[in-house]
Amino acid sequence: MVRTGGLILLLIVVFAGAALAGDSSITVHCSEQSGMVRVVFESDSEPLIEQSTVSESYSLVKISFSEPFNYKGGAVPASVKIYKKEDSLFLNVRNLQKIKSIRLSSPPRLVVDAYVTEQKKVSPSDMPQTDTKDLRGFVLMLDAGHGGSDTGIIGGQVKGESLLTLSIVNDLYKQLTPKVQKVLLLRKDDVYLSFEQRLADAAKTKIDVFLSIHMTNKKHCSIFISKTPANVSSKEIKYDPALAQSAYIERSRVLAHATGEAIKELTHLDVVYVEAPMPMLSAIRAPAIMIELPIATPYSAEIINSLSASIVKALAGYAQR
What we know:
Blueprint: H1 2-21, E1 25-33, E2 36-43, H2 46-50, E3 53-57, E4 60-64, E5 70-73, E6 80-85, E7 88-93, E8 96-104, E9 109-116, H3 129-132, E10 139-144, H4 161-176, E11 182-185, H5 195-202, E12 209-216, E13 221-226, H6 234-239, H7 249-267, E14 271-276, H8 279-282, E15 288-294, H9 301-319
Parallel strand pairs: 1-5, 10-11, 10-12, 12-15, 13-14
Antiparallel strand pairs: 1-2, 2-9, 3-4, 4-7, 6-7, 8-9, 13-15
């Protein structure tokens, strides 16, 4: 009886300890100054902070923790996004260049100093209006490939294709928003979206251009358009949603070549054009392309910014053709 009671007491202590381990919490505090954003993660658990690891990839910072925790959030500026995924926090900082991190005690804190590129303010009179004037009425949809549990390619410097495509799409969104009528994002965070959900969301709004961003292990950039199956009648094209892209193939070709020319000029990447049955593109009722970028490229903030600028330039050229 005594032995049984001791075992029960031991189990209570073990389970109580496990429960307490998952009750650790983290709150965040942010401050901005010229060229830097300071993000402080404060916890009630010193081991949680001491055993954390910090890694940087593109415009994202990943903080991995050794045990479960409750993320209580906090006020962050518009240039910063923070989200939790399993036992990690992801910090997305606009125009991120580099980071420094330190750990402090009393209370336990992880301090991440994110150094950013300051954007030069351009007056309306200095903006190249002629380059983008024909884009002003455009509605664009951007698709960041993969997401969430569907990480895509993983390896080397890359922490996940889904994070890199999201960084590129977010930068594109920032550059395009002042120049067009509207930019729509199929996903805004590192979340999983099924193929069916993407198509359903894409069909909700009438758009002028659809761009899907993916990565490849190849050393060149590939630009895809959807190829119409052989022996398809005009009636089938009209009534079959899976063949909707067939009515826009010629404009998709123009868009693909304009994009390839701009990417090649500004990034010096080799570009290959591919026409193939592409389920994600075939149901889109607008000119649509998928861009596959070489994942081996070291995608710093400057390279992502330059890549986005080349795509914006391509869209402006496409609009004028």
